[in-house]
Amino acid sequence: MLSNSRVAHQPHDHSRCIHAALARARVLCDENEARLTRIREDVFTLIWQSHRPIGAYQIQDQLAQQWGKRVAPPTVYRAIEFLSVLNLIHRIPSLNAFIGCPFPNSAHSHLFLICENCGSVAEMSHHGVNTLLQTASEKAQFTLQSQCLELFGLCPQCTQNRNTGTSAGPTNA
Ligand SMILES: [Zn+2]
Ligand SMILES: [Zn+2]
Ligand SMILES: [Zn+2]
Question: What residue ranges define each of the domains in the chain, with the CATH number in brackets?
Fold first, then answer.
């Protein structure tokens, strides 16, 4: 089972996450003979600025601030599309927002643990879940092509805060 829930949901040095994510992105782009252009890299870094999903409009706004000029929406969408195809980022359907993928090179469940209190999202990939969905689909004579599971609840940090009665706001990056 691959999981980044311990990292995503706890206070940590997030600059290390961004650094590692960028390194993975560069390798993956090289392998696919694709270029991590400035716009792609900037959009990617914006999405990785935290473990909370970010919407396309927000990306556009922040990019405009960074660049000091408005960036055409189709340009931003193309960058998002490029990153999605390589599994470097994922769209969380219910939030219509994007999150960086911690293991773009590995088998995927597209299983997201969404904290309803602080908004952080951790991704998990679980072989058992994949097998279960595949088997269930086959039984229904359904050809499974993609999947996305959104689990809603409280992250470890928020669970702990609730149990200890701490009312402090979100602390994790
Ligand atoms: Zn992080
Ligand atoms: Zn992923
Ligand atoms: Zn939380």
Answer: 2-164 (1.10.10.10)
How many A from CA of 48 to the centre of ligand 1?
Answer: 8
CA of 140 to the centre of ligand 1 (A): 39
DSSP state of 51: S
Q: Which ligand is nearest to the CA of 21?
A: 1
Which bound ligand lies closest to the C-alpha atom of 102?
A: 2
Q: What is the pLDDT of residues 78-102, one digit of tens each?
A: 999 999 999 999 999 999 999 999 9
Which two structure tokens, joined as six digits, stand for 9?
Answer: 């949901």
- What are the backbone dihedrals phi and psi of residue 22, each rounded to the nearest 5 degrees, phi first? -65, -40
SS3 131: helix
pTM score of the predicted model? 0.89
* Residues flanking ion ligand 1, Cβ below 5 Å: 14, 17
Which one, of 137, 125, 66, lies nearest residue 90 by Cα?
125
Nearest to 79 by CA among 39, 120, 108, 19: 39
